[in-house]
Fold this sequence. Notes:
CATH topology of the largest domain: Four Helix Bundle (Hemerythrin (Met), subunit A)
Order of helices and strands: HHHHHHHHHHHHHH
Helix content: over 70%
Oligomer: single chain
Distance between the termini: 37 Å
Strand content: under 5%
Largest sheet: none
CATH architecture of the largest domain: Up-down Bundle
Number of strands: 0
Number of helices: 14
Shape: flat
Structural class: mainly alpha
Amino acid sequence: MTYRSIEAYVDDMTWRLRVGVRRRRRIAREVAAHLADLVAEEEAAGQTPQAAARRAAARFGSPAELAAEFNRDSALHSARVAAWALTACVAAAFVAAGLAVQGAAPAVPWPNVAVYYAVPAILVQVAGFCAGTALLLAVVAPWLLRRPPQGMAIAARALAAAVVALIPVAAVSAGNIAGAGRVQGALSSFVALAVPVAAMLGLRAVLHADWSAGASTLDVIADCCEALAQRSPWTARLLTLAEGTWAAAVDRFPHAMGWLEPRRHPWRAAITTSIAAGVALKLPDLVLKGDVDLPAAAVEAVAAFTGYVLLGGLLGLRQRLQTPESLGAAGAEG
């Protein structure tokens, strides 16, 4: 498509943008200014105004591709801001829940004791896992791998899930500000005020997100681990040793190692990880008291497995199993 004026090009690009009004106007001004410079160069070379505009638009590139690039940058910025904001809310809510357990709870919690303790204990963990996934995909992995982010659709879903989990926590925090102590009240106030702001940022990130298919969270984690291992010679050798040991163990004990492979046997690996999480969460009792509360560890393990069942696919931690038909189709394509 050819354009006989700068305005036609800018208008075609502008309506494709999925950004805020102020950012849209700023982008339009910057693009128009750059195009004007190119038109001036073409006219100085002897082109007519119409021909100069056409040549300048051709040199600048397709407005659809340019708008898509601006949209990706805007979506990534929104996801990063939302991920940091939700992570901060999760951290404050986690500290507040810990202080409540240690005796800083109000004398008469709102709306009742069960809700006051259960809502933060359960939902803060869910929100933390979701916000952490979004932070990994939108912030940590691009910085560590030095490449454009992968799996932004998963990051958007993780942000949405974190928002949903934190809203009841904010409501409970708001209802207990008056009866809490100074530190507990400050943290509750922060959570009550910051969660709505973070929720709006998360909603904005979801609306601007690129929903095209991308890498799974497992793929990104594997790439990050490999990148970290390659940062020094000794970690690279350690990675090679670990990969060789793992391959040998899989060859010798295929059934047992199936309980540790999240790609080939996701449900077995989920059971193993849940049990390990339940035990790990109760390790402080073993260190401080010399005893592990096995029923509590079992509850933590069941909760972790339930979270995997509900959120594993949403967060890109559970990949579709390859059926014989899909493997045959892949082999035929190859």
